[in-house]
Amino acid sequence: MEKKKIISEILEHSKKTKSVLSARQLGDSSNQFVGYILDFNDQIFIMQQITTKGLKNGLLIETIDNIETFEMGDYEDAYGYLFNNIELISEQTVGNLKLPKSSNWKFEMLRTLFKLDKIITIQLKTDDNIVTGMILGLDETHLKFNPLTNVGKDEGTVIYAIENISTFTVDELESRKIKVLNQWRKKKA
């Protein structure tokens, strides 16, 4: 009986405030629904699901007894922030870049992106590692980089040899999301 009371309080709070929460299915730790509660009773709930980009993603109708955990924390707060501020990531801001003419094109392009203060994603040819973050500085041989997690958490500083970078992208939707969440975290701190 106490469990239902606690769950009712959590679901009611989400419904009233549109607070984002996660619902993890019983016996399936990989299946997690994220959104806010539209309605519920003693047996079932209806959740407005949201994507990792903060967009509405359909309704979930599920039994309360089929949920192992309801979670509210940093992860859910981040996606709630995106949901309420979707306009911050929806528009691509880099439409074109000038193609470098020198043989040191990676350095030239990275220098341009550094001046634009854009978040980028790089792929290393040495281990197929893909990392998203901000350029902190560079010279002709090395890139000083601030990797960020997919929810905008700062992961410190890493130095990469420019010759080991095989690919980089700029201003992708996922990258814009990460940058917005990183800026939000800095404001909260």
Q: Mean of the pLDDT scores?
A: 91
CATH class of the largest domain: Mainly Beta
Distance between the termini: 39 Å
Number of strands: 10
Count structural domains. Answer: 2
Label the structural class.
alpha+beta
Write down the Rg. 21 Å
Helix and strand string, N-terminal first?
HEEEEEHHHEEEEEH
Main features:
alpha+beta; 5-stranded antiparallel sheet; 189 residues; SH3 type barrels; 5 helices; 10 strands; elongated
Structural commentary:
The chain is of the alpha+beta class and 189 residues long. The chain folds into two domains: 83 residues, SH3 type barrels (Roll); 99 residues, SH3 type barrels. 31% of the residues lie in helices and 34% in strands. The protein contains five helices and ten strands; from the N terminus they run H-E-E-E-E-E-H-H-H-E-E-E-E-E-H. The strands form two sheets. A five-stranded antiparallel β-sheet has the order 4-3-2-1-5. A hairpin with a 6-residue loop joins strand 1 and strand 2. The longest helix has 16 residues. The mean pLDDT is 91.
Compact overview of the structure:
The protein is built from five helices and ten strands.
List the helices and strands and how they pair.
Layout: H1 2-17, E1 21-25, E2 32-40, E3 44-50, E4 56-63, E5 67-71, H2 74-84, H3 87-90, H4 105-116, E6 119-124, E7 130-138, E8 142-147, E9 158-161, E10 165-170, H5 173-188
Antiparallel strand pairs: 1-2, 1-5, 2-3, 3-4, 6-7, 6-10, 7-8, 8-9
